[in-house]
User: Which sequence fits this backbone?
């Protein structure tokens, strides 16, 4: 990050407005029609597995995770991940993802899914979900549906519809 000091912190309830404004700036109003947002309408993200990036007192990035199931298997959905445009390409997004995955693994989670660019997310362990193994509500580009196993073989035999998991909801 050059000479700037980056701090990754668990998301606090007081961050909600700043994060929403960040999402508005980076994703725009069209974000609400995306399949991942349809899942987010039904269950809140987990504050203890969602993180913010700060340079000094300035919030420059955010990543959230929410509880889902793939068929009968519990998992997390990572996203949205966003970084303020002037601060992109400095490793902030990667630092947020690495912290989110590490904390999820520490807390016993085994699978994390997301909808995103395979080239970007493969650098932190995500791979494409095989066609037909999982379905999402609404339209989705299944070439962008990715999974990271936090435990060896955690995705073996897992299939079915992706839906919110209310048992972990806050």
Assistant:
């Amino acid at each position: 990050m050059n000479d700037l000091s980056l701090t990754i912190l668990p998301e606090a309830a007081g961050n909600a407005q700043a994060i929403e404004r960040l999402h508005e700036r980076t994703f725009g109003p069209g974000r609400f029609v995306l399949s991942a947002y349809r899942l987010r309408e039904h269950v809140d993200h987990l504050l203890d597995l969602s993180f913010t990036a700060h340079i000094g007192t300035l919030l420059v990035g955010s990543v959230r995770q929410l509880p889902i199931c793939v068929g009968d298997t519990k998992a997390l959905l990572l996203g949205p991940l966003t970084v303020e445009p002037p601060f992109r390409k400095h490793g902030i997004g990667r630092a947020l993802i690495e912290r989110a995955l590490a904390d999820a693994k520490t807390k016993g989670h085994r699978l994390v899914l997301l909808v995103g660019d395979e080239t970007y997310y493969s650098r932190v362990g995500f791979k494409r979900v095989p066609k037909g193994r999982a379905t999402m509500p609404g339209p989705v580009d299944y070439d962008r549906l990715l999974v990271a196993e936090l435990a060896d073989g955690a995705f073996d035999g897992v299939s079915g519809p992706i839906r919110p998991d209310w048992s972990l909801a806050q």
Observations:
- Residues 92-106 form the longest helix (15 residues).
- The mean pLDDT is 87.
- The two ends are 33 Å apart (CA to CA).
